[in-house]
Structure formats: C-alpha cells, structure tokens
Task: structure prediction
Amino acid sequence: MLQKTPSNRTINHRRIIHPLFVRITHWINAYAAIAMLMSGMRIYNASPLFEFKFPAELTLGGWLAGALSWHFAVMWLLVINGIAYLLYGIFSGHFIRKMLNIGAISAYRNIKLEMKYLLLHGTGEYNVIQRLLYVLVIWDVVLLFFSGLALWKPVQFQRIADFMGGYEQARYIHFYGMVILGLFILIHVSIAFAVKGTIKSMFTGRLTKSQIAKLERN
Ligand code: HEM
Result:
C-alpha cells in the first residue's frame, strides 16, 4: 500500500527495508562479535596490559583455555559470515546506497531535521551518525582481524606484526580495537532498544506499525 506523508514522502508499507541477507548475516555477526568480545576480555584478564581486569561476570570461557577455545571457534564464524556480509554489501550496492553517503551536505541536512524533531530513526534509512558508526565498526572488525592474526601466529604473520610496530604494539592495537567494539555495541544496542520497532524490523525486514505511524506524522 502506497501513501503520502505531510512532507510529501511516499510510504510503501510492504517495502523490505532490511534485505534478508543483511538480516541473517547481521544477527550471526552480532552473536559472534559479542562472544569474541567476552572471551577476549577473559584472555586479557590472564595477562593484563594495564592495571585493571574486567569483571569475571562480563567474560566468557571460565578460564584461559576455555576462553581461547571460544575465541578461536567463534573467530571462524565471524570471518566467514563477515566476509559474506562484506561481499554482499560491496557487490549489491548496499554499502553505497545505505552507508557511504557521509558528506557534509547530508550531515547538515540531518542536523536541520534533528532540530525540527523530524529526523527519523529505525526506518531502514540510516542517518549520518548511524552511517559513521557502522562504517567505523566494520573497519574496526577488519583491524581486530589483522591484529588478531599477528598475535595468533606471530611467526607466519610476522609482516603484519612488523607493519603494526611489532608484537607488543599489535597487542595494544587489538586491545584498543576491542574497546571501540565494546563502545559501539553499548551505543548501538541502547539506540536500537530506545527506538520502538527498530529491532523488530531487523527481524522481519519490514516497517512496523509504530514506524509507519511515525512516518505518517512527518
Ligand atoms: C544484540 C545486539 C545487537 C542489536 C540488538 C542490534 C540491532 C540492530 C538493528 C535494529 C539494526 C538496524 C538499525 C536501523 O534500522 O536503524 C542494526 C544494524 C546494524 N548493526 Fe546491529 N545490533 C546488535 C549487535 C551488533 C554488533 C555486535 C555489530 C557489529 C559487530 C552490529 C553492527 C551493525 C551494522 C553494521 C548494522 C547495519 C547493517 C546494514 O544495513 O548493513 N550490530 N543492528
């Protein structure tokens, strides 16, 4: 069903706002990234880089060997599924359409809409902040992958470690990458829960009733 809004936008109630491939890979990536983060914190606790340790309740694996088993098992899930998501994003045009439009003009338009309370969240169209965050986290996972390779097989991947300034430096890079991932998850999940309908539509792929009502008001 097609409908016009007061600001002359057309709403198609049946439109797929999140393609099935994106939804499936997103939820697998989310599971894998959270498991990597939690087991990574347990591995860090066994040999901390700084004066602090992470609370045991936030970690996964129970002990060092358990956490390492989790970390390496889930790593394959994240790598295979992550590559599938990246290839889909690049070759289907999904990234260009939904994420890479991060220019100053669209940022300015977003701020103007936000000030008039017209900026729409959770409708499948990402605003500039979301786009920046998604692009940032995708690069962050790539950085975590390469610094992780350097730590996992320091002899075979010595060139990567050298490029990062040595093994010790690669450890710090991997750690800071994990901090960025943790912060992203905190912000991303809080926004997803705060805006009604967002999570449901990431499962169904379609606009929810509350999202349609919000669009109709604008
Ligand atoms: C349980 C935790 C998570 C929840 C509830 C969640 C929820 C969501 C929702 C609802 C969207 C769609 C946003 C919108 O329509 O405005 C989304 C998109 C996205 N999320 Fe998550 N997410 C979670 C974890 C993660 C994690 C761990 C990552 C990164 C490793 C991640 C990366 C992304 C990316 C990149 C997108 C954009 C997808 C695309 O269109 O290609 N999410 N998430």
